[in-house]
Write a structure and sequence with these properties.
The chain has 462 residues and is α+β, with helices and mostly antiparallel strands. The chain contains 13 helices and 16 strands. It holds the Pfam family DUF3868.
């Protein structure tokens, strides 16, 4: 339904003066180009403003220097705000020729558009007129336009000519929604001893039935160098103290279990002796163990293979037969598959697994911890990461960076994931927050984060 409002002085504040709008306006839309109408009117600086008092304020400058109707004519300029079928007229400005003006004065009649009109006799009309008006703001004014109609009247109030010009448009600015989620971080427990380890696997080759290591045999030089590189990577660090080295040797299932037991034991002790010659480790620093046949490794391969008799071979591996009986049954029942295992799998089952255990010193100096977050985060405990984060403003880029670095170092820790989820929420990264919350546990703090995630998604973020 069309909503047209004819305003009066009681509904409008009209100031025809050289004043300016207050600086507290919420939004402004200006038509940059000047407009010239058929009546000779020129308009510049047209502005629509939604004020803090919830009014739509209009400001423009009317150049009336060329609006000069003849004695019996009048020009009426009527600004109005329109959006679709809704509109509101603003007080008009009338410029009257001499006879026309005197007629209204003598007869005591209102001007052409009523008492709200601001009227001028042509000889008294200013060349430039600042125009200000305001109306109560309503929702339809978002997206509205300011236009002005120029009408030229002859005698008997006949309209001889009229036209309308667009002056300005108004669109409500996008209001920033201030989102302040209720988040709770958890302070990670401090570690009394920061025990860590490095693990690796070496494939050292031995001639058949030989247990002594030959460093120049096949690829042994590379495999032995891997072990040494792992040890040296932490042994030479001033912040780290080595506590032990564990070596576990494995043989493959072909041959008798007793022979494989001897080979696994002998080759493990041989590797221990080789390492002892490289370092002056304390007595009992190197711990050894062995497993005669790596059936777990064999099963893992078979389960992921495309062997013709895969399921039957898995049933034998998982059965109750003794190791020698298992190996014989696979070899005799499925010879083609066994040849594949012997050539492609068994060599990889002869390996030495090693683990270097060490302790990292505690860090308490905030500046040092900050540096380690960037240079060597693996040395930090979760509690130390938290200390660094707390030294920054909550929600700052540095704060978020520390929390997200912590979860990279401790990807499966519930506290690390919760705090990283909170950090992701602060930067409105719903996708990352959801991923972290999968590992954040079910505590009340995680509940708050999940609620905040729902709110963020409802806002249309990410």
């Amino acid at each position: 339904m069309k909503n047209r409002i004819n305003t009066s002085l009681s509904a409008l504040a009209v100031l025809l003066c050289c004043g300016a709008l207050t600086a507290s306006a919420q939004a402004v839309s200006v038509q940059d180009a000047s407009v010239q109408s058929l009546s000779g009117l020129k308009v510049s600086g047209a502005t629509l403003t939604h004020t803090p008092e919830d009014s739509l304020s209009v400001l423009m400058t009317l150049d009336l220097s060329e609006v000069r109707p003849s004695s019996n004519r009048a020009v009426v300029l009527t600004p109005y705000v329109v959006h679709g079928t809704d509109s509101v007229e603003l007080p008009s400005v009338g410029i009257y020729g001499r006879n026309r003006y005197l007629y209204y004065v003598r007869e005591g009649k209102s001007q052409l558009t009523g008492a709200s009109e601001h009227s001028f006799r042509v000889k008294d009309c200013p060349s430039s007129l600042p125009y200000t008006a305001s109306v109560p703001y309503t929702g339809w004014m978002d997206g509205s336009e300011l236009k002005i109609t120029s009408r030229i009247y002859g005698c008997c109030s006949d309209i001889l000519d009229e036209g309308s010009n667009l002056l300005a448009s108004y669109t409500e600015p996008v209001k920033e929604i201030i989102w302040a989620p209720d988040l709770a971080y958890i302070t990670p427990a401090a570690e009394t001893v920061k025990s860590r380890d490095l693990q690796g696997r070496a494939y050292i080759d031995f001639p058949v039935n030989v247990t002594e290591i030959r460093a120049d045999y096949r690829g042994n030089a590379v495999e032995l160098a891997k072990i040494r590189a792992t040890i040296d990577s932490v042994r030479q660090d001033k912040d780290i103290t080595l506590t032990s080295l564990s070596i576990k040797g494995f043989a493959s299932p072909e041959g008798s279990y007793a022979a494989n037991e001897r080979l696994a034991r002998g080759r493990t002790l041989s590797l221990k002796s080789h390492v002892e010659k490289l370092y002056a480790f304390p007595k009992d620093f190197i711990k050894t163990s062995w497993e005669a046949e790596d059936w777990a490794g064999l099963r893992e391969y078979v389960a992921g293979s495309s062997l013709k008799n895969r399921d039957a071979i898995l049933a034998i591996i998982d059965g109750d037969l003794k190791p020698d009986a298992k190996e014989w049954k696979i070899r005799s029942t499925y010879p083609a598959d066994y040849r594949t295992l012997l050539a492609e799998v068994y060599p990889g089952l002869r390996h030495s697994d090693y683990r270097v255990d060490y302790v990292i010193r505690q860090f308490s100096d905030v500046e040092e911890i900050r540096r380690l977050v960037v240079s060597d985060p693996q040395k930090l405990s979760l509690n130390e990461f938290y200390i660094a984060a707390q030294s920054y403003e909550a929600g700052s880029e540095d704060f978020i960076r520390v929390m997200e670095t912590a979860v990279k170092v401790y990807p499966d820790d519930a506290v690390a994931n919760l705090n990283a989820a909170n950090a992701a929420l602060l930067r409105k990264d719903a996708e990352s927050a959801a991923r972290y919350l999968q590992k954040a546990g079910d505590g009340p703090e995680a509940g708050k984060a999940r609620k905040a995630l729902e709110e963020l998604r409802a806002l249309g973020e990410n």
